[in-house]
Amino acid sequence: MNKPNRNQDALNYHSKGRPGKIQVVPTKPTNSQRDLSMAYSPGVAEPCLRIADNVDEVYKYTAKGNLVGVISNGTAVLGLGNIGPEASKPVMEGKGLLFKIYADIDVFDLEVNAKTVDEFVNIVKALEPTFGGINLEDISAPTCFEIERRLKAEMKIPVMHDDQHGTAIISGAALLNACEIQGKKLDKIKMVVNGAGAAAVSCSKMYLALGVKKENLVMFDINGVITPDRTDLDEIRLAFATTRNDVKTLTDAMKNADVFVGLSAGNVVSAEMLKVMAKNPVVFAMANPDPEISYDLAIQTRKDIIMATGRSDFPNQVNNVLGFPYIFRGALDVRATAINEEMKIAAVKAIAEMAKKPIPEAVNLAYNTTNLKFGRDYIIPKPMDPRLITEVSSAVALAAIESGVARKIITDWEAYNEELRLRIGIDDKLLRNLTYKARQDPKRIVFAEADTYKILRAAQIVKEEGIATPILLGNIKRIRQIMRDYEIDLGDVKIIDTKDQCDRIEEYADYLYRTRQRRGITLTESRKLLRDRNYYGACMVQFGEADALISGLTKDYATTIRPALQIIGTIPGVRRVAGMYMMITKKGPVFFGDTTVNVNPSTQDLVDITVLIEHSVRQFNVNPRVAILSYSNFGSNDGPIPEKTREAVSILHEKYPEMIVDGDMQANFALNADLLADNFPFSTLKGRPANTLIFPNLESGNIAYKLLQEMGGAEAVGPILLGLKKPVHVLQLGSSVREIVNMITIAVVDAQEKEKENI
């Protein structure tokens, strides 16, 4: 990896366009003078008076109930130390981003210039009327302990220092399950904790609360084992002092230890230390980026080990995102006055229990598995598990109610869980799930236009992120020059110049000639065509030299797709290919087809396109609800378009009775379930809006997706080419690097699915 280039990428990510990562957006109409008069003067006076009469009404009329303050003084930022409040702001914005995407919680990040306990506490206390909860972040120990203690005692809204309790909650859940699998009882285990910072102290307190005996826990800091005679420690750390005389070093403590918990520094545990641990040891090496002992070394040393780290590239990642969004979600939803120990324990148990339940297909899809199950390599849920928001938030909310800190009581838990699912749902995570899936089984992607900066940049990104292995087609000197000019590091990537490297030309040309000789293509012309990178790339896929082809950035759609049709061909039974866009909207993904291939499809073409797209949508683990669109609603108008759409729906209902499809209908009725139910209650789409839209011709589909992309703020992923035997995907002319990366991800997942189906 080219580190300077990666560093610049990070700077560009935060600075390009609107600086930063979050923004404030209106939630009410603001289009008319009346709207503005309601939002501000004079209409705003009415809710002000209601709140003045009853302060609890602030939750009804303002955003307080869904607003968390992420607050830091910048004294312990990540692994960077005391870099100041301004320098901590990117981290706090990032935390706000995670709150939003995982639990739909709004955040104001506040970086305060206050280093003493009194200064910090006074500032945060004064902000209580603004927020529904306070997430403390990156505050150095031991100050953070006293700050949190005082704020919890003096405020009547939830307060949590995630650096302490987040790791404690997630690792606590992991400990419960690891000990169960290893056949160990918490009150019997011998535990070593390496590290005595805020997270280590909080984790140790959590483990004691779960049943670990204090006399069986030994804690180390940078100066060695914590003992009662140490004079350099505060009371909080001295509470974990051991009286064991046989422990002087970490090596001593590891002898016959059942559990090692590392929250310290990388590579401080050796293989020899692991060898002297008890049978079936549990090791949580959570230092980042380098664990206390590497995952590979640990599992090579002890076959009976359960190993967890803080890293995403190994099993059992202890990741705070499993906890804090959902803990605050549950606390906010019952207007809790605190996040107490009962709520934390409830979160621990909910997370632990989730890992034992059957894994949703969405999680298997995200991690490219079919048999993920509770065991040594799966002791806690994956961050992409959509059940976290319902399981953890509900458990926390219930604990708040039962422990008496809730000011709002939930009685209909089924309705509450549905509300939680609707807040973000699996649809909002679809692209992230696909990226995770691609990483689990990366494929070889051949790029027909590799002598362009955007393609090379996208190739570097997918290579670095483990999504795909690039193969580059183009002028080698030009490609190398672009890579030097833009500091793009692709290592030993394979580069092929189809005009100079002829090692496969004859074999490919012979194949093209044999398959197209009765379509007017001679052997000489085949050789000439194979100099075209789209033909060569399609042959590489056909011959198994690559798994998918990406092209179209600089050439028109027809020129790009023709070689794939001639060389690879369509899936048996598929009469025509189709193009589909996945539109990522605030309400989830909506699939558009056909937007790129079929100009004016016939009735039978519409049937074929619908069947093809419906099947493809299912591969994204989305249950398709299909609407075939026109300017008519169920026969309200006549004309060629309404008639062919109605006929197509009739055929689909007869031949595919299990398919949820209806039409002809206008787009607003397809996307508005209430409007559809009120006017056409007989529709098979009643209850929920359509998520798959079939357009009557290319013109309407193409116009619709581009309007939604430019004016509706949707992200367009595609065009996704459907119906070919092997994956070929065509970019939009002028696609951005991000759009190319998305298409590569789709291509990898497509290749994975076709490999499963043996197509």
From TrEMBL:
InterPro entries from the UniProt entry: Aminoacid_DH-like_N_sf (IPR046346), Malate_Decarboxylase (IPR051674), Malic_N_dom (IPR012301), Malic_N_dom_sf (IPR037062), Malic_NAD-bd (IPR012302), Malic_NAD-bd_bact_type (IPR045213), ME_PTA (IPR012188), NAD(P)-bd_dom_sf (IPR036291)
Cofactor dependency: Mg(2+); Mn(2+)
Gene Ontology process terms (BP): malate metabolic process
Protein name: Malate dehydrogenase (Oxaloacetate-decarboxylating)(NADP+)
Leading EC class: oxidoreductase
Keyword Cytoplasm listed: no
Domain called Malic enzyme NAD-binding: residue spans: 164-401
Domain Malic enzyme N-terminal: 19-152
Stretches assigned to coiled coil: none
CDD domains registered for this protein in UniProt: NAD_bind_2_malic_enz (cd05311)
EC id: 1.1.1.40
Organism the protein comes from: Mucilaginibacter gotjawali
Region of interest (Disordered), ranges: 1-21
UniProt cross-references to Pfam families, sorted A to Z: malic, Malic_M, PTA_PTB
GO molecular function: acyltransferase activity; malate dehydrogenase (decarboxylating) (NADP+) activity; metal ion binding; NAD binding
Binding site for NADP(+): V77, L78, G79, L80, G81, N82, I83, G84, N288
Family: In the N-terminal section; belongs to the malic enzymes family. In the C-terminal section; belongs to the phosphate acetyltransferase and butyryltransferase family.
